[in-house]
Write a structure and sequence with these properties.
Blueprint lengths: L9 E3 H8 L3 H9 L6 E3 L2 E5 H11 L3 E2 L2 E2 L20
Helix pairs in contact: 1-2
């Protein structure tokens, strides 16, 4: 089990897109339109984890594209990423 010190307080766009399981282009669009809490530092977007967690809790009660948004575990950010795919 990871301690509180292992939880990243600020996420990059790549990390957040992977956690939310959406394309980075969609995340950037949400940022530009002000639909997701984000801060731009220079040319880079950054996301405070606590604000994203609060935002996600609010999204649980809204519909997106006719489907309720499903939350994933924060451990998805730290889990090793496997690019190898099985062929059927």
């Amino acid at each position: 089990m990871k301690g509180a010190e292992d939880v990243v307080a600020v996420l990059t766009a790549s990390e957040l897109a992977r956690w939310l399981r959406i394309p980075k282009s969609t995340l950037y669009k949400l940022c530009q339109e002000g639909h997701i809490p984000a801060t731009k530092i220079g040319r880079r977007w950054r996301f405070q984890r606590s604000l994203i967690d609060d935002w996600l809790k609010k999204q649980d009660h809204t519909r997106a594209g006719g489907h309720l948004m499903r939350r994933t575990s924060p451990s998805d950010l730290t889990a090793p990423r496997s690019d190898a795919r099985r062929r059927a």
